[in-house]
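Figure 3 (text version): structure tokens given as input.
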């Protein structure tokens, strides 16, 4: 459907009689007096085939009833027009259908475009006349309709706000859990490090008071640096290899009556040092009476280095989580900007780590050549959260979560897939409806996918579709590469 203006066709007043109006199902129960009023205030309009009767987004100032012909309704999705219905049923109505609702300060606009597919005739009332008629003749019905419409709107807003708070609470709890692990690890490592440093001071005092020649102390300090460097370059061993190495080192130390040799063997094995290294240490130390203290000294040095590495890893993990939280919440960032979709996807995965769990394998198939897109990143992160959370729940803790990005024409596609049981055909067409949910009472509001749909379609001019079969369900989000054209 072309994005052209409605075809302006004159509306002829006073053409239909009350008896003719009564043949329309919308007016069949009205009195003669009411039909006379409608006939006097309405008019008829002829639209040739191909003409645009109303256009989505224009002020809703007329109410139309189809008398003859065929019409098609469509809505704009991104740069495309999607036909939503087609009918030739006489008496169907469209246009300013909610003009009778209380003025809430929001201008009424047509929610869809309408085109005549062949020569069509309409009965037309102005929005003001239709509103006056409804409010004067059916006051109780209007109160009920207003209560229903406004009630659903307020309920949706309240539940949406509560859902956001609940999701924020769950994410905060998960983030605190993720932060607690590295923070606790860093605290434990710092406590152990204090003990090892104290032990090193003690051993240093013993070495210094043992009348060790200066050249031996210098050689020992030099040996310490060599051992630490060798440990840093040692290859990573499997658990079985580490266990075997620990046995070899323990036997070596036992043969030389090293105090607490089996405990020290675990430290040297973790550092990836073998008996060849110990033989070199023995040779460079020289004096047999100094070997025990030298091995302990080097063990403390190795363990200290390992503990500092543990602290560095733990604090780095905390920093990564904090950066992910900032990226997810878009702190200190503009609401609308050009973004790389992968940043939001990665931060969302980090924030949802506690929900994903160890039973779900995460596959990230990202096309890193994708250009940036214009978007509201905080809103898109909400979309990713809803889609990933739904996928995780569908798999019930076991399966594969696949996040894929690729380019399709002038759009970026983000696909969130899972290996869950799939969505039945009878439910697919309803998943984006407000309040529709298949989850048990108290576990789902039915607004997650509705909110996601509105963010993608209304907020970004894109589209979101569901493709599902058992073992392979995908939600595909299409986002335009360019700013939507202004209308």
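Below: residues designed for each position.
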């Amino acid at each position: 459907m072309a994005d052209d203006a409605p075809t302006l066709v004159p509306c002829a007043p006073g053409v239909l009689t009350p008896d003719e109006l009564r043949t329309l199902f919308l007016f069949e129960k009205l009195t003669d007096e009411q039909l006379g009023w409608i006939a006097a205030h309405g008019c008829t309009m002829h639209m040739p085939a191909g003409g645009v009767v109303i256009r989505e987004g224009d002020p809703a100032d007329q109410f139309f009833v189809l008398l003859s012909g065929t019409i098609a309704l469509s809505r704009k999705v991104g740069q495309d027009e999607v036909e939503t219905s087609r009918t030739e049923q006489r008496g169907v109505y469209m246009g300013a259908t909610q003009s009778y609702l209380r003025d809430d300060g929001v201008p009424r606009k047509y929610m869809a475009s309408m085109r005549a597919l062949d020569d069509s005739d309409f009965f037309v009332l102005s929005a003001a006349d239709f509103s006056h008629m409804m409010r004067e003749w059916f006051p109780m019905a209007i109160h009920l309709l207003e209560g229903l419409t406004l009630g659903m709107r307020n309920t949706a807003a309240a539940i949406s706000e509560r859902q956001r708070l609940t999701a924020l609470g769950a994410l905060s709890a998960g983030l605190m859990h993720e932060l607690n692990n590295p923070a606790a690890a860093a605290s434990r490592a710092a406590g152990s490090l204090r003990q090892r440093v104290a032990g090193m001071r003690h051993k240093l005092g013993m070495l210094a008071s043992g009348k060790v020649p200066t050249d031996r102390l210098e050689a020992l300090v030099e040996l310490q640096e060599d051992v630490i460097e060798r440990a840093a370059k040692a290859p990573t061993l499997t658990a079985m290899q580490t266990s075997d190495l620990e046995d070899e080192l323990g036997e070596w130390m036992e043969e030389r009556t090293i105090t607490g040799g089996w405990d020290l063997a675990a430290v040297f094995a973790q550092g990836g040092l073998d008996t060849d290294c110990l033989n070199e240490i023995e040779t460079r130390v020289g004096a047999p009476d100094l070997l025990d203290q030298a091995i302990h000294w080097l063990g403390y040095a190795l363990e200290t280095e390992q503990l500092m590495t543990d602290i560095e890893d733990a604090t780095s993990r905390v920093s990564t989580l904090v950066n992910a939280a900032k990226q997810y919440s878009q702190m200190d960032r503009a609401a609308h900007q050009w973004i790389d979709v992968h940043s939001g996807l990665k931060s969302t995965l980090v924030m949802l780590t506690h929900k994903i769990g160890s039973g779900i394998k995460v596959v990230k198939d990202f096309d890193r050549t994708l250009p940036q897109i214009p978007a509201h990143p905080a809103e898109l992160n909400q979309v990713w959260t809803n889609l990933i959370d739904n996928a995780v729940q569908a798999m019930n803790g076991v399966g594969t979560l696949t996040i894929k990005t690729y380019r399709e024409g002038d759009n970026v596609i983000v696909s969130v897939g899972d290996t869950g049981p799939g969505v039945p055909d009878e439910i697919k067409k309803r998943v984006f409806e407000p309040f529709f949910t298949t989850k048990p009472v108290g576990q789902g509001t039915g607004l997650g996918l509705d909110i996601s749909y509105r963010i993608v379609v209304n907020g970004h001019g894109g589209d979101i579709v569901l493709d599902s079969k058992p073992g392979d369900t995908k939600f595909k989000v299409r986002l335009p590469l360019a700013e939507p054209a202004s209308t």
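Residues 80 and 272 are 62 Å apart (CA to CA).
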